[in-house]
TrEMBL record:
Keywords: Ammonia transport, Membrane, Transmembrane, Transmembrane helix, Transport. It comes from the Bacteria. Its main location: membrane. Belongs to the ammonia transporter channel (TC 1.A.11.2) family. The keyword Transmembrane helix applies. InterPro entries: Ammonium/urea_transptr, Ammonium_transpt, NH4_transpt_AmtB-like_dom. The chain crosses the membrane at residues 28-49. Residues 1-66 form the Ammonium transporter AmtB-like domain. It comes from Corynebacterium hadale. This is Ammonium transporter. It is found in: Membrane.
């Protein structure tokens, strides 16, 4: 998991350059900032909502969690 996360973080600058190259001359900076903004938003979304989906517990055979069951990393001691 750690290796996969590291590879994705290394991929993000290349993806920003790729999207910047695909955009027009006026939109290069906007496209690159948009790609880098995802690196800041995705961890926050995971901590707030993805945590409860990862550690579903007993809800629906442990596959689907209640979205707010462990909102904001609440209850990691289970």
């Amino acid at each position: 998991m750690l290796m996969s996360a590291s590879l994705v973080l290394l991929m993000m600058p290349g993806l920003a350059l790729f999207y910047g190259g695909m955009a027009g001359r006026q939109n290069v900076l906007i496209m690159m900032v948009t790609s880098f903004a995802a690196m800041a938003v995705v961890p926050v979304v995971y901590v707030l909502w993805g945590w409860s989906a990862s550690y579903a517990g007993d809800d629906i055979a442990g596959i689907v969690a209640t979205p707010l069951q462990a909102f904001g990393v609440r209850g990691p001691d289970r």
